[in-house]
Amino acid sequence: MNNEHNPIAIRINRIQESWKDQIQNNNYKVVRFLLDDEDDLPLINGFYKLESSIHRSIDEVLVVMLTDFENSKEYSYRLAKDWILEYEKSLSKYPDLPWTEFTTYKDKILLANPNLLQGHLLIEMLASYKKSIPFPTENLRIGIVPRKIYSYPDFAKWIEKFALQLPQDIGIVLTDYTQNLYYSSVMNNTNFSSYSLHIESQNMKGAYQEIIRSGNPSDPQVKFNNCMLEMGKKASAQNKNGVHHWGKKLLEVGQSTGDKGIWASAHLIYAGFLFGFKDLSIQPLLDKGIKICYSQLKNNDTSSLGILLQLYNYKASYYSIEGNSSKAWEWFIKSTQEAMKFQHYMEAISSCKNAIIIAEKNFMKSDMNQYLENGIFKELYKQDDEFIKATEFNYIANYYLSNSPTLTQEEYQTIDQRLIRLYGKKWRHQAYSNLQTTP
Q1: How far is 251 from 79, CA to CA, in rounded Å?
Q2: Is the pTM of this model over 0.90?
């Protein structure tokens, strides 16, 4: 779809134009995107991605950082370290990048003590980077968008201190919501300049519907998308007969494509829309979807593996809704085993976490312990640090450390130290808190 007519691109362009009109060439220390609708977050992320690339349209340099915020003491160091790592990755692709003092600051950060406040080093490094920008009149904007924020009040305080120290031509960009106003204290601080760029609701549901409905009406994919839209409308209106009407059409369209993956996913989608009605056809639909996926796996075709794992998880979730905890646990374990078999470790960790939640709430610890002791924990633990940190493995590790009957003290300490290094000192508390969520 041409960007000129792409509803997502059109909406991102509106944000770009608002930035040019209200932000560009102003030395605000803090710029806050203030969203009325959380559904619009993908648009802001799209803006960040475009404007921090070679395809940028604004006359400012935007660098986006995703560093997790765990505490104020270590954040400056972690941010500086991630900045160096990201620049190094870019340098491997574009060796002619102009920051000549990169090696100097890389060495400084490697030698810095992460347990001491390193705000001065972060500011010094950013000032050095700013000098390397080919167009000196362009501001440097740092989009600070942590993947995880463990305390918004602490993060807001850190932002205020950081903003006070920034040179005139370097600023911060944040994302906030009118229903939360996480950064009110930052924006109300009169010791530095700030501006809220208000983003009214962009009707993202409408945008997605435009995309889904676009194309040739006789195209099976367009028909498939239309069936999903209509099912969603009927489900929202609590119209079960309507869901069945469009669900059956979805199955017909899915089968007509000749693609077993699409046909299996039609069963998954149809069953999913029926969850709210506790309909008797849910499990048979999921079973038929599983049967379709099995037929592909028998022919060594793994293209529908992701759908198969979702079908397993849907069965487990619905058994949980029905109060059949043993069956729910069994199907989450089946999903874990299938994912492990094909080395889809991310999916295995997610399913295993859900199995643990079921076991914890339904007095099934002996079953869960036996399963973890049979090798799955050790297999997942062997994965590299970068992968482990990006997953929910900390939940599995917390359960294993708490319940393993065979774990030695030395093994316990080794695992604990690694998880502290990857997730922070409070990793067990965070894992325990988040493990209370029902799958």
Answers
A1: 49
A2: no
Tokens of 161: 């201190």
C-alpha–C-alpha distance, residues 289 and 305, integer Å: 11
HEC sequence for 236-305: HCCCHHHHHHHHHHHHHHHHHCCCHHHHHHHHHHHHHHHHHHCCCCHHHHHHHHHHHHHHHHCCCCCCCH
Q: Do 154 and 64 share a structural domain?
A: yes
Where does residue 349 fall: left (phi above 0), alpha (psi -120 to 50 degrees), or beta otherwise? alpha
The count of other CB atoms within 10 Å of the CB of residue 284 is 12
Same domain as 267, residue 245 = yes
Got the DSSP string for 365-379?
HHHHHHHIIIIIHHH
Edge-to-edge strands, sheet with 194-199: 61-65, 140-144, 170-177, 30-35, 194-199
pLDDT average, residue stretch 257-266? 94
Which CATH number fits the domain that encloses residue 75? 3.40.50
Q: Using alpha carbons, select from 391, 310, 398, 415 the residue that is nearest to residue 360.
A: 398
DSSP calls for 125-151: HHHHHHHT-SSTTSPEEEEE--S-BS-
Residues 274, 276: Cα–Cα separation, whole Å: 5
- Dihedral of alpha carbons 224, 225, 228, 234, sign: negative
Whether 361 contacts 323, CB under 8 Å: no
- For the four alpha carbons of 3, 6, 12 and 18, in that order, the dihedral sign comes to positive
161-203 residue pLDDT tens: 999 999 989 999 999 999 999 999 999 999 999 999 999 999 8
User: Is position 239 within any domain?
Assistant: yes
